[in-house]
User: Fold this.
Amino acid sequence: MALHWLVAAFIFAGVVLIWCVDYVPDEQVRWVINTHKSIGITVLGLAIYRLAWRLTHTPPALPSSYSRREQRASSLAHGLLYVLIFLMPLSGWLHDSAWKDAATHPMQIFGLFPWPRIGWIMSLEPGLKESLHDVFGLVHTISGYGLYALVALHVLAVVKHHVVDRESEMQRMLP
Assistant:
């Protein structure tokens, strides 16, 4: 439960930051982008921990009132959320590593310690690296929209079960 909310909070913060980047003064843009990157790497670490937890701990059973279709939809949505929680930070890291100015702008996690770029990407020929930068950026953006859609469906499902079906679904995830 704590990992769920921690990952959700970091993802929300990363999204808010990147949506605001075009509206902050020029001298704060780099800080916003660097913080967005730091949040992404943090989410990746938490996702690895969360996956390890899930592989070693049985998830709580879905309520017996769920239809087979709801159970399958829930399973599929959670699986896709896991994919996107990994794909978003990985595609962002690949995108950042292919950035033409990466070598002159070292990456640090929250300004506390250096974070490496992906070396084999940085060593590519500039034209190829620029093409990959565009591809990874597109993957990152499309994955973001997929994540927004899945999170919206996730929240709507919780509201439906809580309000319409009057099930205690929300209480399962609250402390």
Remarks:
- The two ends are 8 Å apart (CA to CA).
- The domain at 2-173 is CATH 1.20.950 (Fumarate Reductase Cytochrome B subunit).
- The CA atoms of residues 146 and 152 lie 10 Å apart.
